[in-house]
Structure formats: structure tokens, C-alpha cells
Amino acid sequence: MNAPPVLEARGVARRFANGVEALAPLDLTVRAGEFVTLLGPSGCGKTTLLRIFAGLDAPTSGSLLRRADGSQLSYVFQDPTLMPWASVAKNVRLPLDLERGGRRAGKQARDERVRHALERVGLADFADALPRELSGGMRMRVSIARALVTEPKLLLMDEPFGALDDITRQHLDDELLGLAANQGLTVVFVTHSIFEAVYLSDRVIVMSRRPGRIIADIAIDAPSRDAAFRVSPGFAMQAARLQAALLEGQQ
């Protein structure tokens, strides 16, 4: 790709204070507009690397260049982490209320951005609902709307659909692809699912068991991202490539 880099990790490694080596030195470049998935076994450092990308953690060694500043970056956690006492709209508006100068932007401007974010995830009619009144998939949509309300350029997602049933997960995968395309997002996505990685990604970064290192960087060739692709021979072939790479990383 000729797009400019958004993230550049050079020799990034992470060792925790208890001596656990989470990441071996690794190099990775993510370019604007890419959908890049981190795939690997539990405990291989995927979330650690994502947190370093977000500025929530720092590498023990190496360097990270991030060309999206804090206002252009959003992070979606595994759990929706919604305030149970607050409405959907108030949960989505929280980043705007907390951001520097957010209060000065005015309530009407913030409410308009919340409305647009909820429309993007198909929840415009649920602005006044409480989280307990929503399904698991809907709560995750609220979390995504909260991430989108700041109008980021870079979206970091840590297994956001891992706890959902397959039908809901596939539906949200489709919605996420549409959002990424329509908003021109760069996405770094963590998953354990080979099939989800194939379906969503421009590139899949396969990581070894701890300490995590990159063992494969695989481009996904998909003529389309739809139900037909999920059952195509090409999909199965690319899933098999990822499976083989994962098995290699266990040795």
C-alpha cells in the first residue's frame, strides 16, 4: 500500500515487573485505511501490543511512532463497560464530556454528535434506554458508538465480539466493515477466531505463544465481504493458511 503509516513499531518488547516477558522484540507497520487483525493464542501479547498502540502501556524497549493523536484514536474493550445507571445517549456522550474543551463545545453540539454516532450503529431509537434493557450485541454497539463519537481516525478493538453468539457476531462483523469503509477508519482488531480474522481483515498478523512475536503477516484476498465469501473455497483456503501459521507458532 502507498498509504502513509499510522503506527510504526520498531523492536517493541514488553517485560512486566514480575518478570513475565509478554512481547519479544517485534516490528509492525499499520497504514492508513487498513484493517489489521492480531491473531494468536491466549496470553501471546495481543492485548499488550494493542494497549501499547493506544498509549495505555509503554514498551520496555523499542519505539512506537503513532501518527494519530489522542483525539483521533478510540479503544473498544472486550466488555462494553457501560455505566448501568446512565442512558445509552449519556454513555455514548461520556468521551465528549471528558475531553478537553468538551463542555465548551456546547450541549447541542455534543447531542448532535451522539445522535450521529447512534445512527451509525443502528441504535437511534434506543437513546433513552438503559444498558440492562439491551441485548449483549446492542450493548456492544453502544460501546462502538461511544468510540466513534469522538470521530477517530484510528480504532483499536480488543476482542469486542468474543462473548457473543455466532449469528450476532457475524452481523456485527458486517456492520463494523461498513463503518470502517464509510468513516475511512484504520482498524487494529484482536481476535482468537481464524474465521473472523479472514472475514474482516486486509492483513492478519499471526503471533506466537508468549513471549509474543510475529510469525506471519498474511494479506487476505477477498473479492467481496459477504455471506458467499464465508462459504467460498477461497475463504477456506485462507483460513487453512492462518491455521497452519498458528500451529507453527506453537512449536
The total beta strand count reads 9
Spatial order of the strands in the main sheet? 5-6-7-3-8-9
Order of helices and strands: EEEHEEHHHEHEHEEHH
Distance between the termini: 32 Å
Average of pLDDT: 90
CATH domain class name of the largest domain: Alpha Beta
Name the overall outline.
Answer: globular
CATH fold call of the largest domain: Rossmann fold
CATH architecture term of the largest domain:
3-Layer(aba) Sandwich
The radius of gyration computed from the alpha-carbon positions, rounded to a whole number of angstroms, is 18 Å
User: What low-confidence regions span 5 or more consecutive residues with pLDDT below 50?
Assistant: none
Number of helical segments with 4 or more residues? 8
Helical residues, percent: 25-40%
**What is the CATH superfamily of the largest domain?**
P-loop containing nucleotide triphosphate hydrolases
Q: What kind of sheet is the major sheet? A: 6 strands, mixed
